[in-house]
Design a protein that fits this description.
This protein is mostly helical. It has one domain. Helix content is 88%, strand content 0%. It has 2 helices and no strands. The longest helix is centred in the middle third of the chain and has 57 residues.
Length: 72
């Protein structure tokens, strides 16, 4: 029997409430771990981009001011 045939005889609440709740209970830890990893990775990537951008800004600012002998 296919899954479609098995689910065809079930009430709507089994398909749309009970099965997702069971999936969350069984795989909840895994889902949480994956989401935590992805969010942490995105945060570290954002910090990396901000630091590199700040470094490039400072280097350009100081090299351009040292070339022109500006306000320092």
């Amino acid at each position: 029997m296919a899954v479609k045939e098995i689910l065809a005889g079930m009430p709507w609440w089994v398909k749309w409430v009970a099965i997702p709740v069971i999936a969350l209970v069984v795989f909840g830890g895994l889902i949480t771990s994956v989401l935590t990893f992805v969010v942490g990775l995105l945060f570290k990537l954002l910090i990396f981009v901000a630091l590199v951008g700040g470094l490039i800004y400072l280097v350009r600012r100081f090299t351009s001011s040292s070339n022109s002998r500006g306000d320092w």
